[in-house]
Amino acid sequence: MSRLRETGNEAPVSSLAFPSATASPTKIDASAILHLYHLVKVSSKAFVYASTYRSPQALLAFSMLTVEQRNSAWGLCLLGRICFESGRYPEALQAFSAAQRQAPYRMRDMDMYSTLLWHMKKEEELANLAHTMVSVGRNWSPEAWVAVANCFSLDGDHGSALKSLGRSIQLFKASHGGTMVVPRTESGGVGSLAYAHTLVGHESVANDDLDRAQQAFRTAIRIDSRHYNAWYGMGMVYLRLGKLDLAEYHFGRALTLNAQNPLLLQSAGAVYEHRGDYGHALEVYERVEALLRQGYVADNESLADGTAETASASVAADGTVVLGLQSHHAMNFVMFKRARVLVVLERFAEAAKILEQLLCRCPREFNVPFLLGQTYAKLRRFREAAACLTRALDISPENSQSVNEAFDALYQQSAADQEAVDSDQDAAENSDANIHGAPRRTRASARDLSTPPSELSRGHGIGGSDMMSPVSSSIGSPYLDSPSVFARGRRGQAEWSHDWSALNSADDRVDRALDFDM
Prior knowledge:
Helices cover 64% and strands 1% of the residues. It starts with 29 loop residues before the first helix and ends with a helix. It is mainly α. The longest helix is centred in the last third of the chain and has 37 residues, at 400-436. The protein has helices at residues 30-51, 55-63, 67-70, 73-85, 89-102, 110-119, 123-137, 142-154, 158-175, 192-206, 210-223, 228-241, 244-257, 262-265, 267-275, 278-294, 300-305, 329-344, 348-361, 367-378, 382-395, 400-436, 443-450, 453-457, 464-467, 506-514; strands spanning 314-315, 321-322.
């Protein structure tokens, strides 16, 4: 047995004061009890509001926490999740990034952070996050493999993303004994299992595997019936299948669960679009855009009455939180869909104004300059249309076939318009010649004499006589089949299809754009 060695500075055992069994119990400070009660009460309210996707009330409860709790990793992740579920991506990015810096090896809630980075197309940050998480929790963390899947998905490798999600589901079941019961995390979000199945559904939709997508979304709903993302995914699948009634039902269920997300509010407009009711679709998008510009409040009745005050992240007199969303990430998506409907309704001038604003708000989105170029072509602003299509091809070279088809249509429309102008001017010159007895000279011969030989011999894939022929047929409403503004994958359908050879470089495209005689 070991012995205790006494030193000269130690007090004798008999002189040590031990609490007596008969001593009076220590009195606990009442202020400490009240502080703990307040902390638990406010945290519970924020947890409940976040779990039920009532973002304004959750933000109000979060603001009542202490500074230490708000600045902790738990508090920052809670704030990031609340902002993400309401579609406030810039605020969510700030909160999640601060939490990740404070606790770099935290795994919980980082799957939501990786999805946020996927939505905001931040490839470098997502790759760094996935590398850090996998280096720590390769063999035990489902969230780490969700981050890896999002990284693959952003790079366009949907097959590898599905494999990573399968690994995440496997780890989650292993850590919970193979059960399908999903615990609620302390920050109020759904468990990793339902979320992983939902992401499997979205990746399957990107691969056009709608049967697997339906199975994945149904599994997620069976695991957690309050997971609005799965209901929304089922609505998108039914929308792709043309089952509009079922799509509307599932969109309604998603909106019932999370009425604060503006991206869900426009789902009714998508149903109207596929039904061909573009007037009602435009009304829905205008209402959503007006709602985003005014601000979103917690009281739905005040929204219906139109009595909500406009503010920016402030607390109203009745205790509701007013969120100024003029810089909302969903605003770009709704504006694009409204512009697309305006193009279908042939209100090209209004659509061009919206798309010009979007070009400044999201300069790296392929669909914005692509649709703007087609809109400029309808307005006969051919030089600007060629510049927009060139910009779209530089942003997304994988959509070169769509852009080249749009270039072909643009060139033929420009040539047809020029031919019509030439014929009108020839008719006017011929009438003047008949009156004054002047020799007849056509516009085409004058142009041939003044055009340098290099311009006539520059190859564009077809002969010069066919180049001036007007367009004979077109496919109606091609803009509805273009890919969504924040989604990568499905190629938009061009208005005209030709077998012209693709252009090889940006210089060729610019030279071709400058060939337009306007």
